[in-house]
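Hey, quick one: can you model this chain's 3D structure?
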Amino acid sequence: MNVIGKKLLEEFKNKHNDVKIQINSWLCEAEEAQWTCPNDIKGRYSNASFLVNNIVVFNLKGNDYRLVTKIYYDKQIVLIKKIGTHAEYSRWKF
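Sure thing. Here's the predicted structure for all 94 residues.
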């Protein structure tokens, strides 16, 4: 997958060093993946949440952080929309 929005991840890692390893691991796995449908993601990330319009929310570092993406399966693109703490995620509107 082609991951767009890596700068947002880098900025977040600089502020939240405790999740750096998990972000790096997720990014590496996402870039090597060839997801064609939600089941492909669910097979590896069983706790991922699937919302309308191909929005997928990944839990990082247990459930401490949330990574919100939009997946374009046909184009093999993952767009990073938001990343934040669990508390921040609870206030976001989708």
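One thing worth noting: The beta strands are 2-4, 49-50, 55-60, 65-72, 77-85.
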